[in-house]
Specification:
single chain; Nucleotidyltransferase, domain 5; Rossmann fold; 2 domains; 8-stranded mixed sheet; 7-stranded mixed sheet; alpha/beta
């Protein structure tokens, strides 16, 4: 295929004083090889929302701003705009750069499809390319204007902790692997590489993504900044406003009988004068945009931006209306619309545990104390009320995360210890220290090791979460460890428990949220600010009755608390369930 590539440009004098917009409009050529609907010289007009006073491009050019965060919808040209800015930086003030994509495959493809063609087809920029292209012009590494540029997948954590980087581009951060027990998340690892330049005030980080939920990386980073929104003037009354989805008018009753007509009649309506806007009027308003901060930034060197898809000139109202009508068919489609078009986190969950709820369940006792022995509580329970310390431990590859919770007959409980241990013997020691009588251990991983330990240690019971849509929370079984082996019938038998994971989590969520008739459920004083515990306990969301860990976040404390609850129910100290784990009528 042949491409029409300009052979002569009006050469711009490359200088550090050139802003991204002026520089790019004279130097960057988007050839037909680049995935774009607008080939030709790069123009701000096609990505107008990124410009303007107080806008993202101005923030990128401002040396006083270190981090630029954009919570974006689809089709807003976020990747291309970030690359154009980085091209300008490499040409005018060369220094090391890193671009991180969701995966190594994505990084290679994006580099091959857009990054390299923009340099190769822009006449003014070819001079910055290396002579030795075999070594210095690959899909993961280029040497541009004498400095290294790396492309790395977020799924390769080993490559995210090596060389110092001055300029960092984090593309679609909500798709990155999240933090684990052994290693920080991919975005955090990449940011660490800018530390040397940050100390000098020279680093620049741009991160952008369509959001997922309220615990997603891009939403949390957006909330950390000054939360800028785009204000545009009404073409009829001149009122400045932020375009929100509620102002897009679609006749949903008509859509049930004639969806095509409903789409054709959809429009944006000014909330002040009630006049409808055409797409041309909306696009013209975007050209007159102003970006305004709507919050005080927690990080004075961070500016964050909210950019829904309707801030883009590539998006029509008809397209949005069609997507919205389609989104009514399922929760997943609605979630995709909220994330991809509104650029908002999806929060329409049947059941959610919020961080602030842990402040309301803090007890009047300290970690390690038997809460029932504190005066404020002891007078509330009979002296002969059964009380027992029950442990729950979630087993991982190289460690165990657990909780020890003191239950009182009836189901009230208070956490007395949360943490991790290196091995089973260390678990046994901590359980002995706090007087745990029974410990319920997840056996999904390291199954045989868990079973053998439980066989030789009284009070330890292996558990397995299942999904079976049954009325029973749990069932008790007896396992012969030598079944199918020589020596079968030697008496190496252990009790095991299978529990309905979603049912257990529903009950636990009721306690944390203190719903009506919920048991008293306490955590030690100060635990509402114990970041690791709170983050793990709020990692999962219940959607349509099923609990999901949408971001694959560390949730071992949550699983351990569920196991302790299973123990309390199975031991009969939790009222409301019979011996089979079935809810009493």
């Amino acid at each position: 295929m042949s491409h029409s590539i300009p052979t002569t440009f009006d050469l711009l004098e490359i200088s550090e004083a050139s802003g991204t917009i002026a520089w790019a409009e004279k130097n960057v050529y988007l050839s037909p090889r680049v995935p774009t609907s607008e080939p030709g010289m790069w123009r701000l007009d096609t990505v107008s929302a990124w410009g303007g006073v107080g806008g993202p491009i101005e923030a990128l050019d401002d040396p006083a701003v270190e981090t630029v965060v954009a919570r974006c919808g689809a089709q807003v040209a976020k990747t291309t705009t970030a690359q154009v800015w980085l091209m300008k930086e490499l040409a005018t003030d060369p220094s090391s750069a890193l671009q991180v994509m969701n995966s190594t495959i994505d990084a290679r493809e994006k580099c091959h499809e857009s990054w390299k063609p923009m340099w190769e087809d822009s006449i003014n920029l070819r001079r910055f390319m290396p002579d030795d292209k075999r070594r210095h012009w690959t899909n993961t590494y280029q040497r541009i204007n004498g400095v290294p540029v790396y492309w790395i997948g977020a799924n390769s954590p080993g490559r995210l902790g090596a060389k110092p980087i001055r300029r960092l581009v984090l593309d679609e951060v909500d798709k990155y692997p999240q933090q684990t027990k052994r290693e920080a998340g991919a975005a955090a690892l990449a940011r660490q590489r800018t530390k040397a330049f940050r100390k000098k005030g020279q680093a620049k980080i741009i991160e952008f993504s369509t959001p997922t939920d309220d615990q997603g990386e891009i939403h949390l980073e957006f909330m950390n900044g000054d939360q800028r929104k785009m204000f545009v003037p009404c073409p009829h009354c001149g009122a400045m406003q932020v375009m929100v989805w509620a102002s897009f008018k679609i006749d949903m009753d008509l859509a049930k009988t004639d969806s095509r007509r409903a789409v054709d009649e959809a429009h944006y309506e000014c909330p002040v004068c009630k006049n409808g806007w055409t797409d041309d009027e909306r696009w013209s308003a975007i050209d007159k945009r102003e970006w305004r901060a709507t919050a005080v930034s927690r990080d004075p060197r961070c500016q964050s931006f909210h950019m829904p898809s309707w801030c883009s000139k590539f998006v029509t109202v008809k397209y949005l209306a069609a997507q919205w009508i389609k989104a009514q068919n399922s929760i997943s489609a609605l979630r995709d619309f909220i994330n991809s078009e509104c650029a908002d986190p999806f929060l329409q969950y049947d059941n959610r545990i919020r961080d602030e709820q842990f402040g309301r369940v803090e007890g009047e006792y300290r970690e390690g104390e038997r809460w029932i022995e504190q005066q404020v509580y002891s007078v509330q329970y009979p002296e002969d009320a059964r009380r027992i310390v029950i442990g729950g431990f979630d087993v991982q590859k190289g460690y165990l995360v657990g909780v020890l919770r003191l239950f009182v007959q009836g189901g009230d409980s208070g956490l007395i210890w949360f943490g991790d241990v290196a091995n089973f013997n260390a678990m046994d020691s901590i359980c002995e220290k706090y007087g745990a009588e029974f410990v319920f251990i997840d056996q999904r991983y390291r199954t045989r090791e868990v079973q053998e330990f439980c066989l030789t240690h009284n009070g330890y019971i292996p558990c397995l979460g299942v999904s079976r849509k049954a009325r029973a929370m749990f069932t008790v079984g007896l396992m012969d460890l030598d079944e199918g082996r020589r020596g079968q019938g030697s008496g190496r038998k252990i009790q095991t428990i299978e529990h309905d994971a979603d049912m257990v989590k529903d009950v636990l969520a009721d306690q944390i949220q203190r719903t009506e008739n919920a048991k008293r459920w306490l955590v030690p004083k100060g635990y509402s600010t114990k970041a690791d515990y709170v983050a793990q306990m709020s990692a999962e969301r219940c959607i349509n009755g099923k609990w999901e860990n949408l971001q694959n976040r560390a949730n071992h404390g949550w699983d351990a608390e569920c196991l302790a609850l299973v123990g309390a129910v199975s031991l009969g100290i939790w009222e409301g369930f019979n011996a089979e784990g079935t809810a009493d009528a």
